[in-house]
Inverse folding.
């Protein structure tokens, strides 16, 4: 049953100028008749962005679902199957652009949408993705790789939120493949608690990834609101929107000495972890990880 929320028109929303971005993610298990209660649970500090998976609505139904102070920034709705799908609500104060990923979507295999945020001098791509338990994992992985390749630029930071139905408590082949793919784009999973709200021993199927080369100060916490059998997650990026006068630039010294030292360290590396792999992709990922580890070991200074 829907309830009337307290008025959200005059709430105090933390602004980007205060130096952080608040992102809410939940597998909502149908958004229908839940919007008012959702806002009531989040009052008074509404997130800047709500990433919802399994909203279960058609395009027509979703167009009539409004979240006060927010607008749909990106979405995907199924045409052939029931349930599933993804949507992102963006606070009206944010400058966002929809990134059309519909051509990569395949119902059940990969349902995905994205927005680009322009925050001061920074650009951030936020992706919401869902994969059904019955979805083809290989197709999901290949499509995600293609999307990241297409969108990637050194100046663009990525945040991915989604329910991909992979047991992340177990280090299995699927988990390794996904982790290795994301590492190519400096993305690392940060969820270490179960998605379900009824038991602490449930497997982790929620996957939230951030760009480790850009985001260092963040917090991720579970949030239970009884709107679904899945807990929500609240991600707060604390160093995203610093004033241009507060930013520092990291400069790595490159000269003949450092280049020679770098080559020497590469030549002294055993590379056992690379050559002991039999799969080409795993060999490359191992090589890249070793290469970057040595590269980042060189000192740098801030200007």
């Amino acid at each position: 049953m829907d309830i009337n929320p307290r008025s959200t028109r005059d709430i105090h929303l933390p602004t980007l100028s205060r130096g952080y971005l608040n992102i809410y993610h939940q597998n909502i298990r149908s958004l229908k008749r839940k919007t008012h209660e959702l806002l009531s649970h989040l009052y008074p500090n509404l997130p800047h962005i709500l990433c919802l998976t399994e909203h279960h609505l058609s395009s027509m139904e979703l167009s009539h679902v409004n979240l006060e102070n927010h607008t749909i920034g990106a979405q995907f709705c199924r045409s052939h199957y029931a349930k599933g799908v993804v949507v992102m609500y963006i606070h009206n104060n944010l400058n966002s652009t929809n990134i059309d990923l519909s051509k990569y979507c395949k119902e059940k295999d990969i349902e995905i949408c994205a927005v680009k945020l322009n925050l001061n001098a920074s650009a951030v791509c936020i992706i919401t993705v869902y994969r059904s338990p019955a979805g083809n994992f290989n197709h999901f992985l290949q499509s995600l790789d293609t999307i990241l390749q297409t969108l990637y630029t050194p100046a663009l930071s990525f945040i991915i939120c989604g329910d991909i139905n992979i047991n992340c408590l177990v280090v299995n082949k699927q988990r390794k493949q996904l982790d290795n793919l994301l590492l190519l784009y400096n993305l690392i999973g940060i969820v270490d608690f179960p998605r379900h709200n009824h038991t602490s021993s449930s497997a982790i199927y929620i996957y939230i990834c951030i760009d480790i080369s850009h985001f260092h100060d963040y917090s991720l916490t579970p949030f239970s609101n009884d709107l679904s059998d899945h807990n929500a997650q609240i991600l707060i990026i604390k160093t995203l929107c610093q004033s241009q006068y507060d930013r520092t630039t990291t400069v790595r010294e490159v000269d003949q000495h450092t280049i020679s030292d770098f080559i020497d360290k590469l030549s002294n590396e055993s590379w056992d972890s690379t050559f002991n792999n039999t799969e080409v992709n795993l060999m490359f990922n191992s090589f890249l990880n070793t290469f970057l580890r040595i590269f980042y070991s060189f000192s740098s200074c801030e200007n």
